[in-house]
Write a structure and sequence with these properties.
Strand content: 25-35%
Helix content: 25-40%
Radius of gyration: 18 Å
Structural class: alpha+beta
Order of helices and strands: EHEEEEHHHEEEEHEEHHE
Shape: globular
CATH class: Alpha Beta
CATH topology: Phosphatase 2c, domain 1
CATH superfamily: PPM-type phosphatase domain
Strand order of the largest sheet: 1-12-11-8-9
Length: 242
């Protein structure tokens, strides 16, 4: 079973902002599962004494959907068995393709307006997992959470995520792939999850039991009404062993 959900954070709801998180999952072939979440930057852009509000949910949705489709097509086309090195190569291809995709989005924007467009539309994290019959790997650029069989790892960037779209503003030729973490003993995996930084570890621990997409969203809606939970937006993608 694989599904995902998002929730609008309390602070964004009070300020009547859009949800800047995105989540998506896919199982394009048997024994193949892909999940990812994106979190758009909420900071205002300030230049020349003026500020512009953030609408980086645009980049979160565009980049997230692009990454899901890219991985689905590439992984389905691979011969089996799919070894860890092959998955790593595909993720390196995704990193390059995502950069090209973002460049194309800004290609016709005048240079004088490009920096503001990138800063207010395209700054987003990307955290995901790929599960095949032979291996499982997390990949990320930015902050959030990784979960494998209930073991939780928080990706902490001190509130300064390394957004992929920064490459458009200050290219780094050495950055050719996402950060990766292969899950040890993938044959013993019962569930995987990735989440944005609006979550808390105690809540992620409650995802060990499979829920349908509707049940997951209803549960998330209830949690967001509790004081101290989801002041920020939240997104999660989960895979459970059938």
């Amino acid at each position: 079973m694989i599904n995902h959900a998002t929730i609008l954070g309390r602070a964004h709801r009070l300020m009547q902002h859009n949800c800047q998180d995105f989540a998506a999952t896919a199982s394009p072939a048997p024994h193949l599962a892909i999940g990812l979440v994106c979190d758009g930057c909420g900071s205002k852009f300030v230049a020349n004494g003026r500020s512009a509000p953030s609408h980086n949910e645009t980049g979160a949705n565009l980049l997230g959907q692009f990454a899901l489709e890219f991985l689905s097509q590439k992984l389905v086309a691979l011969p089996t068995p799919i070894c860890p090195q092959t998955v790593e190569d595909v993720l390196a291809d995704l990193h390059l393709a995502a950069h090209t995709f973002l460049q194309q989005l800004t290609a016709h924007i005048p240079e004088a307006a490009r920096r503001q467009f990138v800063a207010t539309r395209l700054l987003t994290t990307l955290v995901g997992f790929v599960r095949t019959a032979e291996t499982a790997v997390f990949f990320w650029q930015g902050d959030g959470f990784l979960v494998a069989n209930g073991a939780i790892c928080q990706l902490n960037s001190n509130n300064q995520p390394d957004y992929l779209a920064y490459q458009l503003l200050q290219p780094n030729p050495e950055q050719t792939n996402f950060q990766l973490a292969f899950v040890p003993q993938p044959g013993e995996l019962r569930w995987l999850a990735v989440a944005t930084d609006g979550w808390q570890a105690a809540l992620l621990e409650q995802l060990n039991d499979p829920r349908s997409a509707l049940a997951l969203q209803r549960w998330l809606n209830v949690q967001s009404q509790q004081r101290g939970q989801f002041d920020d937006d939240g997104a999660v993608a989960i895979w459970h062993q059938s």
